[in-house]
Amino acid sequence: MRAVEVGALAPDLAGLSIVEKPIPVPGPGEVLVRIEAAALGFPDLLMTEGLYQAKPPVPFVPGMEASGTVAAVGEGAGFAVGDEVIVGGLTGAVQQYAVYPAAAVSPKPARLSFGQAAGLRAAYLTAHVSLVRCGRAEPGDWLLVHGAAGGVGLAAVDMARALGLRVIAVASSEDKLARVRDLFAPDHAILGPTGFREQVLEITGGKGVQIVYDPVGGDVFDESTRCIAFGGRLLVVGFASGRIPEIRANIPLIKGFSVVGVRAGEFGRKFPELGRENVAAIMKMAEEGTITPTVHREVPLDDFRDAYGAMRDRSVVGRTIILPHA
């Protein structure tokens, strides 16, 4: 089979190449999946340079999430050949076949295409843990979403609408804002990534937002502390800007807000029962049609550099999908 492999940690995708590998064989409790679609996220790009908090040993096959068809099962795996599934892990998605433990495999919602399903789990799990578990969101709350045109940002806007929140979406270009408006009709869409404070305060009647969803960091985080409501929750989702911000403790003290770190995968590992509830919740919403992942573009395996390059250039709205068998 063919796979994309990170053979060395290097800038500008210099360490990536397509390699030939044997098709793996599932052991007890494992599932071999024919990967139909692999979704790329910003962490996948960071890992190619060793810049993500998780650092898999080199060489490795990148890709944290995918969808596909069960090709073989190990004893006690609980799936059947031909089942359409979603799979997830730290690595391993950008190849034609991959083995996963049964616990990392979920049935694919029937209404979603393979491309949509590949982009469901990581982004929407992050959104659900952020808004429901860490943000304690209530219908009617104001939510400020930064990076709203990216994969995790769009998922947050989509889920927030389903949860009955009032959404202010921030994106870095008018084209991206227009796309967000077309897809999910937030209550307000404003141009960023900075210079949003006055608009947010005006929209909220001077009170600020109850929840800030921040996968960007840097200056965006700093400015968010100036338009969050008393008792609000500033959710630290990531640092796509490249700068990890710092904050003096007197600022959340005086303004009465919380800074909450979000690690959706670790949340599920620390609290397995709640983790299973989180996954079940997003799967149910996907089945019912209240959330729908956005596919930016689908490309064949040979064009993987274009797919990664689009993330590096910040031109992606939603998820870029690699089709290993195309």
Automatic annotation (TrEMBL):
InterPro entries: ADH-like_C (IPR013149), ADH-like_N (IPR013154), ER (IPR020843), GroES-like_sf (IPR011032), NAD(P)-bd_dom_sf (IPR036291), Zn-ADH-like_protein (IPR051397). GO terms for molecular function: oxidoreductase activity. Residues 11-322 form the Enoyl reductase (ER) domain. It holds the Pfam family ADH_N. This is NADPH:quinone oxidoreductase family protein. The lineage of its organism: Bacteria, Pseudomonadati, Pseudomonadota, Alphaproteobacteria, Sphingomonadales.
